Amino acid sequence: MKRKFKIHIFVMSISILLLQNVAFSQNTSIIQGVVKNTSGQVLSGASIQSGKKIATSDEKGIYHLSLSPGEYSISINLIGFQDQKKKITLSENQVINLDWALSTDTTSNLNNVVVIGSRAAPRTSLTSPVPVDVFDIKKIASLGAQTTVGQILNYVAPSFTSTSQSLGDGTDEVDPISLRGLGPDQVLVLVNGKRRYTSALVNVNGTFGKGTVGTDLNAIPVAAIDRIEVLRDGAAAQYGSDAVAGVINIILKHNVNQFNASVTAGEYATRAKALNETFHDGQSNQIALNYGIPLTSKGGYINFSGSFDYRKPTNRGGIYTGSIYNAYGPDKTAAGALVAHDQTDSFLNATGTSRRDYSLIVGQSRIRSGQFAYNASLPLSNNATLYSFGTFGYRNGLAAGFYRYPNDTRNIPSIYPLGYMPYIGTSIYDKSIAVGIKGKTNNGWNVDFSNTYGQNQFEYHVQNSLNASMGTNSPTSFNNGGPKFSQNTVNLDLNRDFDWLSGVNLAFGGEYRYEHYQLIAGDANSYTNYGLADSVGVNANGTPILVLDPNGSYNTLFGRDGNPVPGGSQVFSGFRPANAANATRSAVAGYADAAVNFTKKFLVDGAIRYENYSDFGSTLNGKLSFLYKLTENLSLRGSGSTGFRAPSLQQIYYANTATQFTNGVAYEVGTFTNGSRAAKLLGIPSLKPEKSKSVSAGVTGRFGKFTATVDGYFTRVNDRIVYTDQFSGSNAAGASAADQELYQILAQAGAQKAQFFANAINTETKGIDAVFSYTEHLGKGTFRADLSGTISQTQKVGPVHASELLKGKESTYFSPASLIYLTNAVPKQKLNLGLNYNISKWIFFVRNNYFGGVTEPVTTVANQQFYNPRWVTDVSIGYQIIKEAKVTIGSNNVFNVYPETINIAANSNSGQFVYPRATSQFGFNGRYVFARVELSL
Fold first, then answer.
1. Interior angle at CA 850, CA 848 and CA 853, nearest 5
2. CA 437 to CA 429: how far, in whole Å?
3. Are 98 and 167 found together in one domain?
4. pLDDT at 475
């Protein structure tokens, strides 16, 4: 560690010494100045051009254009603003200051300027060689009911999906995301162009994204975000691991001298016909603040944002129809177990309770959170800029689990006479900070050196629970431990424009990334089974002589139903010392990128990237993309690339035992690492990187007030990492030695079944995305229509990659349910139509959302119910009371649309799941109404 820290310091010191000497080169004649809007705010990304000579304004709005003496017509272009032209005359060795004040173009969109997808100067979404969507978050958040990043993108980004989960343990607090139908861990997230760390959580429960480790988008406050760029194209050759499906780049605000605040409140006001109930629940409140302070007169700033959120739970669960109270005996089954006799009705009459009291809570969890972010830039001497940004947050969640019935082996009747509903509490700590310096060298190279650090930690606290093996001595709340993940990334990036051909940009750089994963054990009573014993011999009858031992493989405690009494806290067992992990790895990368304008109509962008990981070796990836302008307003584009995704440390080192319900039956299921003895018994190898190949092709066009982009794509992923289904051992006399040993290992872990992470399959994903926009002055107002849609399909290709020891068990290694999680747990088709009309002080907004059908992810083919597509409509009306204040009211899902109900009894968990839980199109909470007040001072 000390050696790696010294390397960090050495590299940083050398880079800072280099950058202390940055200075703009002086040419014979120069035009320079600052680009601002009419309100005085500096504008970056503007193109200032004279013939083939092009300059771009930087983050301070400053540009420099070198020309020979003579007369010139200088033009400036920035999407969202009206073009301007000026004529000048330059004499030898002359420097002319030429500032610009750009007026807004109401028929265009400022946020079509994108910075991802190429290392060259910012382009527009129509002139980018790869598809990039750009979303004005302030505007979108002002119109809709959504208050988190994942929710907002779910309703505006065509190929993006993210919905709240239910009964998914930690996944209830971190919404899994999908881009172009691929998994949460195949999307790279950047903040201000710098790699964002992933969540510490690995999703091992029955929800979309099972087995993956994603990035928690909702840890970034919406109040801090200026815009979001979504690159829908494989980009691992440009940005490294995880960018298989694409990249999401979150740009933070940098405005100054303006205080913005908003208060949003809402609730679900809905009637669920299938439940025959009316609900007013899920109340949520958000207070969002933003303020920027100028630093010096050279364009520096520091922008602060804060968000405080509270969300109450919802419940759309049905009434439990199964047995609540069983009496056992005196008769026995052929196997010798006592026969269960259902006495539910008499129990309910005696206790004065109803079946509803024992039913699941199926809905969103309760969440309280506070988040803070800052974004700062400080101009230094020698034309260098010091910058920094960071986010800090805390989130507390409480999610319900499955009910434990009164005389279940998982209950102690003297503690909970009526059984109990256990809850998983989570405390999530999230922090990140980036510091960098950038400028321009004497020979024209743009240099950017930065260090980015981030950490995410989960702490689990189980409440209203017990450890059944402790009997009446059991506590009812537990500290269960949890995972922690941190990442430190050092980047050095250089690029320069050249006047070759019609313009060339060359870029290269390097990255050093250090990752640290910890799995922290909980308190002993959260994981120990105090009813286990070990054998110290046999007596005269050949019966084992047992001594209580928490690490033993013999059960000594059994419930009335004959099942062993489980140990650990119910609903979520604590992490054991044997599960504890403290793993690190490092990765070193180097890349080169060239964007070549062969002519004004033909652009080719190529990239190559080499990465070496300390735990599995090297990988080399490349990408080639092009843009060809058929006319000034119509272009063809395409790309081809190879990519990879490194297995996360979470997937490599996560281990735990937890209660999982399969077809309504509870099992203690252990997750074992690939280096464990259990994995070796099944022939499961160590994890290796996923490898991908992607191609895409599309067309972009602007026809007056109408713009369009249509892109098709194909992605092949080999050796895709999955979370297997449940293996079990056997202690039967005729069982194999391996099955008997696996049985003993499971017993020592307090488990009945085992699961693993494995490179099990190859997949292919193909689809088409389309985005259309139209703007028109209608009457005295402005009308805008945005239509975006996607059609995608993912399928498994080739056989399951099972070992010889797993012959005949391929359906457990990769089950039909796991296949559905990959192929149809999120909609294959999605359509968003947004209509916006601004007139005077009024803003009217309507959005229609089409969500394609999904399939129930279960192994039994007969139970794989298909849930039909649905249309969901959002509306809002905003009114500008005064210049500084605006009020908006509206509704998400105004027509109260619910997903199709479950009609296969096996999927309903004895009637408790009325709407699909394991797969989700848009949630199942019904109509949401809201009101928002915004202040701008």
1. 160
2. 28
3. no
4. 97
**CA 913, chain centre distance (Å):** 26
Residues 735 and 586 in one domain: yes
Are 299 and 152 contained in the same domain?
Answer: yes
Final residue in a domain of this structure, among 71, 105, 139: 105
Give the per-residue pLDDT at 4.
47
Please report, in angstroms and rounded to a whole number, the separation of the first and last CA atoms in the chain. Answer: 48
Whether residue 780 has pLDDT greater than 90: no
Q: Are 894 and 874 a contacting pair, CB within 8 Å?
A: yes
How big is the CA angle at 748 (ends 742 and 753), to the nearest 5 degrees? 50
Domain that holds residue 75: 2-105
Q: Which token pair is 321?
A: 């129809």
Q: Could you write out the DSSP letters of every residue in 102-158?
A: EPB-TTS-GGGEE-SS-SSS-EETTT-SS-EEEEEHHHHHHHSS--SHHHHHHHH-T
Give the residue among 239, 251, 249, 169 at the shortest CA–CA distance from 215.
249
* Residue 514 belongs to some domain of the structure: yes
Same domain, 786 and 929: yes
Asked, for residue 113, whether it belongs to a domain, the answer is: no
129/85 same-domain check = no
Model confidence over 623-656: pLDDT tens digits? 999 999 999 889 999 999 999 999 999 999 999 8
Ramachandran category for residue 469: left, alpha or beta (phi over 0 → left; psi -120 to 50 → alpha): alpha
Please check whether residue 534 lies inside any domain of the structure. no
Q: Is 111 part of any domain?
A: no
Q: Indicate whether 60 and 139 sit together in one domain.
A: no
Q: Which residues contact 63 (CB under 8 A, 6 or more apart)?
A: 32, 33, 34, 35, 46, 48, 55, 56, 57
pLDDT digits (tens, 9 = 90+) for 488-545: 999 999 999 998 998 999 999 999 999 999 999 999 999 999 998 888 888 878 788 8
Residue pair 66/74 in contact (Cβ under 8 Å)? The answer is no
- Distance (Å, whole) CA 397 – CA 482: 14
Residue showing tokens 């149809």: 824
Residues in the chain: 937
- Distant-in-sequence, close-in-space partners of 431: CB < 8 Å, separation ≥ 6: 390, 391, 392, 393, 454, 455
Asked if residue 143 and residue 101 are part of one domain, the reply reads no
Q: How far apart are CA 210 and CA 760, in angstroms?
A: 14
Q: Say what the pTM is.
A: 0.86
Q: Work out how many domains the chain is built from and give that number.
A: 2
